[in-house]
Amino acid sequence: MADGAKHERRDDLSIVLCGQAGQGVQTVEFLLTRLLKLAGYHVFATKEYMSRVRGGMNSTSIRVSHSEVAAYLDRIDILIPLGKGAVEHVASRVSAQTLVLAERDVAGDGPVVKSCRFLDVPFTTIASQIGNKIYSNIVAVGAVAALLGIDLERLTDHVRRSFARKSAEMVEDNAGAARAGYEAASSLGVHDLTLDAASTGEVAARLLLNGAEAVSLGAIAGGCNFVSSYPMSPSTPVLTFLAQHGGDFGIVVEQAEDEIAAINMAIGAWYAGARALVTTSGGGFALMTEGLSLAGMLETPVVIHLAQRPGPATGLPTRTEQGDLELALYAGHGEFPRIILAPGTLEEGFRLAQRAFNLADKYQIPVFILTDQYYIDSYYDTPAFDLAKVGVEKHIVKTAKHYRRYAITENGISPRGVPGYGEGLVVVDSDEHDEEGHITEDLDLRVRMVDKRLAKGESLAADVVPPTLVGPRNYRNLVLCWGSTYHVVKEAVERLGRDDTAMLHYSQVYPLYDGTADYMTQADRTVIVEGNATGQFARLVELHAGVPADELLLKYNGLNFGVEEIVNGLTGLLKDAD
Amino acid sequence: MEINMFDMGDIDIAWCPGCGNFPILKTLKEAVAELDIDPTRLVMVSGIGQAAKVPHYIRAHVFNGLHGRALPAATAIKSANPRLTVIAESGDGDMYGEGGNHFIHCIRRNPDITNIVHDNRVYGLTKGQASPTSSLGFKTPVQVHGVCLEPFNPLAVAIALNASFVARANAQDREQTKDLMKRAIAHKGYALLDIFQPCVTYNKLNTYQWFKEHTYYLDESHDPHDRMAAFQKATETEKLPLGVFYLSPDKPSFEDNTGVYRDDSRPLYERDVDPAKLRGLMESLVS
What we know:
By secondary structure, chain A is of the alpha/beta class. Chain A is 40% helix and 21% strand. Chain A has an eight-stranded mixed sheet with strand order 6-5-4-1-3-2-14-7.
């Protein structure tokens, strides 16, 4: 191995744990990421899992580095298989440099194991000596900590604190398991994976959270005080987070009987003055589309968190895709304005979820927060969010006696009253209605009402989030992407190291930023990267900016892009251009 | 409160002359006036259908939403502002057909709302097809051989779900209906009031006369706290009982169960995020 490559590995390691559901992969992810962060390293973690409660094969990928890391690598430096079949499950990511740390029984001696470095550590035997083989995963945590050169006391303190709610005996058993794993791996004489020491202060103070937590925290900062939803992967963690913290923030949390009830509750709640959220995935959102149209007609705000997974129908329930952009864009019968936000970074997830509530309230329209399984389940450390920059903007008015809910105004926005606040009556109707809100079949009035609703769409341009350009301003190649692919594309473009290539990331996909055509026409060659089979964002860009992309880089096998995969894809596409 | 407080003045009403909805509308205005409910505190919620137009004909706040979806909206409105009186009022097709799932789960949830259902056993707005409560054998342009589906029994379903208030009225009996409306609205918790309503255009079977001849009022011998007796009354078919079938009054309401109003009675629109708590929650994500 070349010295340069060796150095890269010591600065940026990719550790993968793989096992059956129920074997404690998640516990290992939790312990290791927090331990590494405490030790002063930047960490990133993401998981892929099967749609089952027990068995199957799940894996968690953890990156640890001295620099910020926020993207998934295909490469594996250390693989910890916790169950039989685990090595084969991730075989395509294993190379001759991959170190497999496992007991021989579990790893087997198939061609994949034979092709890489293998170290036999009897996790189960060690765990049994501690008292129970269920501690095998904790033994593995200890072994990884030893290979990376983490201080033993830091490891055992961390394990003790993490299990503090368990019985004293279990706390000591877990700490003992971690220590035994640490000692077993230390005796192997492997030193090439030891991380250079890090200073502990700076990273330790940063947040470590995933996309679901960023969106949930943003919703609370946006004044969310009502959430009604039906559980559906991968959107459920947002519902769970709000349920767990709802008591402290006065949030009404209701698991509805179906998604139809969920969105009709959210619209009813906004009507009565609450700030409501629904969180769902494609199939659930499909059931909400009539409700979406209702929000359009009533001009009632609503915020929809749509966490995408592959469809059609039930699709791949636990996998990722960016396949519901057009669903969000065109859902709902009739014509009415909407906003679609698609955060790329965790900070954007927080800031845009917060902003979604203000925008929905200001324009009285549906606002989407479009994420996906990869975004929801990916963790990394990031600076604390700037709470001074966000604030709840309420746009409700106290009504006067002859209040008219749909008073015609120039920008289409009628002052929104709520029942019980003021002397007026708040009348809303899913039928076409007059300015008071009562049902009408006056066709001239119909035209004025349509124009009024669409006028709001025109004024949305003022609040569009501009895309983020990364790389040289005088680029010749422009790589466009949106939503959860921000970090993988950014790192890939940086790795390409071309001074003629930049990335343009959209965290608001609709309405589309009106300078898009200028960005695209400056480039000799444009590539759009997205996680679907047909290039939905590319179509949107062509429709609204009038510029077709030259190339598409698409993925739709249910997994997220890896950095190397995009590097390879772009290398091929841009070579043709040179 | 004067009943004319709830009048809409000279408006165009979309019901057929002689429709059973007229006495229900008039009775409702009297009931809310006698209960002294200010129109600015009253929210009328409905879905779609002829009965679902009721909110447009009474001076109050109105949420006329989607077909079948009145109950989720009404539940949310009440839980966002418990100071409001919320009445979800619509027809049997809207509440028991399109909205059947919400009917079941709304009862389980027990919001403090009143659910008034105009039960005419036929679809009016779509011109005469069967409704969930249509009688067996009832012929329509769609059910050409007569209805063969077991009629939906809303009272029996509600009692099976331990609904907190279950009653039935006959639209033409205005005094009794008004009394039942007042009791339903004053009741804390979910209250179902199913009202027999003749449809003079599409239902030639269940006429004013038919309802008069096929109903009787429950007397003091019926104990509405006796669930088995209530269920038995709800399944009678020879003559149909009217009055309060069942009471399960001690259940906490949905709004109470949210916990949001335990220490703070303000409606949600008056509240703000506590920045210190938000900061604390964010900082809990440091590790």
